[in-house]
Amino acid sequence: MMILVDDAGGIFPAINHSPWNGLTLADFVMPFFLFIVGVSLALTYKKLPSRVVSTRKAISRAVKLLALGIFLQGGFFHGINDLTYGVDIMQIRWMGILQRIAVAYLLAALCEIWLKGDDTVNSGKSLLRKYRYQWAVALFLTSLYLCLLYGLYVPDWQYRIPTEPSLPSKIVSVKCGVRADTGPGCNAVGMIDRKIFGIQHLYRRPVYARMQECSINSPEHGPLPPDAPSWCQAPFDPEGLLSSVMAIVTCLIGLHYGHIIVHFKDHRVRILHWMIPTSCLVVLGFALDVMGMHINKVLYTFSYTCVTAGAAGILFAGIYLMVDVCGFSRITTVMKWIGMHALMIYILVACNVLPVVLQGVYWGHPRNNILKLIGIGT
């Protein structure tokens, strides 16, 4: 799905990421992936031969995924059509999709390894009691996120816009001096990333550049309107530190759905225990959006967490009903193969490894490559 929205999002804006507030098809991909990571962790650590060994393996996997993410998404491949590569360490992007998954996976795995009670599970209440410490972590992370997002003071700040090599870069000032702002220019999510990573290490093509205020071709990229706000060309990381806190919560919600598989064997009981929290999450998420806590993927707001986790629960229960209960498994064969090799497919296609290989064989000029020969690209 991520490959689809990356390649076709420019043609069909309805499936591309929302420029700021709102929800589109592309905005479901990240939380769905985090949700299923949580589900799988419950099955992986159903029986623990050794907590120490399991912890060591979880840390090792997370570090490998983190390093892979920094290499692939830190800016190493930046000129595919010209076959240029390499990254300036002074400007490398530290966060990204794979890095966020690594962080969420590690925290959820540690919770599953160390924060499980000895209670016997025979009902919904006993299930919550057994994993009460994990829910306490989720509550703490949510409270921390809300306190920082709505409580931190965001001062005025500046950034540089590159110009011609012979000319000095242009300095642009963004006026803030506010708290609890969830707009593109003055939110606490961006401020924390600028303070900790430095603005030169953030994503250079923020999604809000497609907003009506920043593009005359909105919801696509385009020239700036005459009265464009000062923040329109500022770097902003959609996988920043503070927003990743709620990504961990999504993973913990998926962990709960996996616990239901582990402890309940009856199909009806499983679906019932899935649909109750699913319904609550969806209703709560949309209610919060109506009350002003907007659904926003870039900030990973609490309402966004609720709606997308609830939607993941609906899809998960639906597929379970179709495959495990009704027995329609043949139509999922291709999806199963893709799911078992999701990381490799993502690296090859979405992270430009396959395009580099295909475009690396050319004649005369890098643009005269295999892709052009078969009519793909320019």
From TrEMBL:
From the UniProt annotation, give the residues forming the signal peptide.
Answer: none
Gene Ontology MF annotations: transferase activity
Q: Where are the transmembrane segments?
A: 28-46, 58-77, 97-115, 135-153, 241-262, 274-295, 301-323, 343-363
Taxonomic superkingdom: Eukaryota
Swiss-Prot/TrEMBL keywords: Membrane, Transferase, Transmembrane, Transmembrane helix
Q: What is this protein called?
A: Heparan-alpha-glucosaminide N-acetyltransferase
